[in-house]
Design brief:
Elements lengths: L4 E2 L4 E3 L2 E3 L4 E2 L3 E2 L4 E3 L2 E4 L3 E4 L7 H12 L6 E3 L5 H4 L2 H7 L4 E4 L1 H10 L7 E2 L5 E3 L4 E6 L9 E5 L4 E5 L19 H4 L1 H11 L4 H12 L5 E4 L9 H12 L5 E9 L4 H15 L4 E5 L5 H10 E11 L2 E2 L1 H12 L5 E8 L6 H9 L5 E3 L4 E3 L8 H17 L41 E7 L2 E7 L2 E6 L2 E8 L3 H9 L1 E7 L5 H8 L29 E15 L2 E13 L8 H8 L12 E4 L5 E3 L19 E3 L2
Parallel strand pairs: 8-9, 9-10, 10-11, 15-16, 17-18, 17-19, 19-21, 21-22, 21-23
Antiparallel strand pairs: 1-2, 2-7, 3-6, 4-5, 7-8, 12-13, 13-14, 14-15, 19-20, 24-25, 24-28, 26-27, 27-30, 28-29, 29-30, 31-32, 31-33
Helix pairs in contact: 6-10, 7-8, 9-13, 10-11
Bound molecules: MU-OXO-diiron.
Length: 629
């Protein structure tokens, strides 16, 4: 008997749920089942988006037949060839031999690999469209989200994104079809996280690329291949994708994973968890021999700090812990602080081996305060565990409140993100350019090292008391100095500023250069911090009162401790900079090879752009660059 769901007047869910599957992809437990979604568009032409897994093929075919209500099936759009979505193709083609398969070239290759059937497919590529009567389908390539052939489809008539694996969730639908019909945050978000992190967690850059493309679309509904359809509060799931794909933690706190044969390593992990709680730090614990790795990987993407406690086994890391650590590294875990506890009765090696694996990860900081146990923890070692807890607590304190955010609050601050605001309204990223930003040299000093960078977000918050706010990208060295010292200066640039000032402070990092070398001045305010006396109309000194972690940026609120007017030249606005200061691109005799930042126009010359390249001017990543045409 059919079991379908109406999504819109023209769109019907014809998928099916599987609650018997023990291991999804043979690896991931699915205790709450899984749905395989397929959608039927009933327009002048009928269009089916993907099929389902073989386990539910019979129900799916019943659903399609019923939903078509005697009409023929005109198109089958194949977005993803993984068999959980393609297994029913052959049976479908037997029932509907005249259906036209619509797919990209890579999909056709995989189709021919999986099946021995002769298919005359309609091949589509990026931005190709298919008109089906009232509806216009736009095809958008999304390679490696999760396989190389993946594409998504945007129905520009009803503003629906058919998103393939993206925005999917583990868990059967249990009679609902829309995310707003269930308590998604409480009941399903952990399964959405577990699905994302394990299935596509490795491909953060590719997911960001898809998010960027999606942000240019006016999306009112998302129809993924697993889990619920999103028609309200799309930002709830999109904002998580922004965090997950950039490997930013969702919460400050500690995930402790331990491998313990006789309970002594577990004992040390328990004591650490208690010490952390005593310091007000949240901690969650997993026995890696009991909890499925997919749950621990999901937790590792959620929490800011990770501790691995492992006994030594066969002169190496305990088997289940080694598997977990390898899995995390394979899933590209980044931007985390890691603590290590090792145990070994005669030759402890697990700690060093775990450390070696994480040292290869991007932006993973392994704490110096590691603990090495011989058989069982001794009283004398409690101070070592406490030192680790202290180090973690201090690190978390330096991060502020720690909840991640979609929006960093600098120029073009909608980032690659959303397209959808917190209330479900659409967000045009270009709107952020309408703010009248200024441009400032932000300077700080730490251990007699002077440094500075260009920022565009400095405003007065209150006049009594006199307070200002600045938002600073965490990748800036100046950011770290302010976190440490709490002091900074803002030099407000004026319209007589030359481009060389932007080159001096904005186009390289103070970590490996002295930005003040040969500048010809050494002016400092009372706080001892340097400022820029030329082409600035004012310098303001700030003492940090509060700081707030907003994912990519920290927002500092500071008391004004000194303010000196240097000239009456008007302040530079961001627009003025582009119109009058930034050099215009010069015609090249030979065609310039390189990439241009779509946000600010910065040009990177070269044949290929590194994946981790950050625009030195506006701090947007490689996904916001496009080849020079
Ligand atoms: Fe749900 Fe990548 O397949």
């Amino acid at each position: 008997m059919h079991s379908i769901k109406k999504i819109t007047d023209d769109l019907i869910w014809v998928g099916a749920n599987d609650r018997r599957l023990a291991m999804f992809e043979g690896v991931y437990s699915v205790p709450y089942g899984v749905s395989y979604n397929s959608y039927l568009l009933m327009d002048e032409k009928t269009v089916l988006f993907d099929t389902v897994d073989k386990a539910v093929g019979h129900r799916f075919l019943e659903n399609v037949t019923f939903a078509l209500d005697g009409r023929s099936l005109d198109y089958l759009v194949l977005q993803h060839m993984e068999p959980d979505h393609s297994a029913a193709i052959e049976d479908l083609l037997i029932r509907y031999p005249d259906v036209k398969v619509v797919c990209n070239a890579k999909t056709l290759t995989l189709l021919n690999q999986f099946f021995d059937i002769d298919i005359d497919a309609q091949i589509v590529k990026e931005n190709d469209t298919l008109n089906t009567g009232k509806h216009c389908l736009n095809f958008v390539m999304a390679p490696m989200v999760h396989w190389p052939e993946v594409m998504v489809t945007y129905d520009s008539t009803d503003k629906i994104l058919f998103s393939a694996d993206a925005f999917g969730t583990f868990g059967a639908l249990n009679g609902a079809i829309f995310a707003d019909e269930v308590d998604f945050d409480t009941e399903y978000m952990s399964e959405a996280r577990r699905y994302y992190t394990n299935i596509v967690g490795k491909y953060g850059a590719q997911v960001q690329s898809l998010l960027t493309k999606a942000s240019a679309l006016d999306i009112e509904m998302i129809c993924p291949l697993h889990g619920f359809v999103w028609r309200k509060k799309l930002s709830d799931i999109i904002s998580r994708y922004v965090l997950w794909s950039t490997y930013q933690p969702e919460e400050n706190g500690v995930m402790i994973a331990y491998a313990s044969v006789y309970g002594n390593t577990e004992n040390a992990a328990e004591i650490l968890a208690g010490l952390l709680r005593d310091k007000g730090i949240k901690a969650v614990m997993f026995d890696v021999s009991v909890t499925p790795a997919s749950e621990i990987i999901s937790a590792a993407f959620k929490w800011s700090h990770l501790v691995f406690a492992s006994t030594t086994y066969n002169a190496g890391i305990f088997v289940t812990m080694e598997d977990l650590v390898n899995d995390l590294v394979a899933h590209n875990i980044q931007n985390r602080t890691v603590g290590i506890i090792e145990n070994g009765s005669w030759a402890a090696t697990s700690g060093g081996l775990i450390k070696g694996k994480f040292e290869k990860c991007k932006a993973v900081n392994v704490l110096e305060q590691c603990v090495s146990i011989k058989s069982g923890l001794k009283k004398t070692q409690l101070s070592e565990l406490d030192a680790m807890a202290e180090a973690i607590a201090a690190d978390i304190a330096s991060l502020g409140d720690g909840s991640g955010s979609v929006d960093g609050g600098t120029v073009g601050g909608a980032d690659a993100g959303a397209g959808v605001g917190a209330d479900g309204g659409s967000v045009d990223p270009k709107a952020m350019f309408k703010f009248s930003y200024g441009l400032f040299v932000l300077t700080a000093m730490d251990d007699s090292k002077d440094n500075g960078c260009i920022i565009n977000t400095a405003i007065q918050v209150t006049s009594s008391p006199n307070r200002i706010s600045i938002a600073v990208n965490k990748t800036n060295f100046t950011h770290d100095m302010i976190i440490k010292t709490g002091s900074f200066n803002i030099s407000i640039l004026s319209t007589d500023a030359q481009f060389r000032i932007f080159e001096q402070f904005g186009f390289h990092s103070g970590r490996d250069t002295d930005k003040f070398v040969d500048c010809g001045y050494d002016d400092r305010t009372t706080n001892g911090v340097r400022y820029v006396p030329e082409s600035t109309n004012c310098v303001i000194s700030g003492k940090v009162k509060d700081s707030y972690d907003y994912g990519t940026h920290t927002l500092f609120i500071a008391d004004v401790t000194e303010a000196i007017v240097l000239s009456n030249e008007p302040s530079v606005t961001y627009q003025y900079y582009f119109d009058n200061i930034k050099p215009k691109p010069q015609p090249h005799k030979d065609k310039l090879k390189g990439f241009v930042c779509k946000i600010c126009g910065y040009v990177y010359e070269g044949d290929s752009l590194p994946d981790d390249f950050i625009c030195p001017l506006c701090k947007h990543g490689a996904v916001d660059f496009e080849p020079i045409k």
